[in-house]
Predict the structure of Probable membrane transporter protein.
Amino acid sequence: MKKNNLKIISIGLITGLINGLFGSGGGTIIVPTMIFLLGIDDHKAHATAIAVILPLTIISTIIYYRQNIIKYDVAFTVAIGGIAGSFIGSNLLNKVPTNILRKIFGSFMIFAAIRLLMK
């Protein structure tokens, strides 16, 4: 196996672990690693992360379903807004300059980290 493939699989393993454990990982782990470790363009890293999230989410959802720990009323209601937001966001992605995209993404990550640490 090529060294780069091993690195990519390792990124996937860590992302899947974090996704299953914390319910995140696609954006918080994959985007920065693709940009800084793999040298992928920011816009492509964000788009690729979304493609990676789908299979991770399906597997995690099946396991959570079997464990009966999903709040379906909340999940379906959030999904309605999420579908609309993802349509808007994916159409805006290539219109946002890289430097602005990084600042927005970094700000969301810092804000989320501070909120989690304050609880």
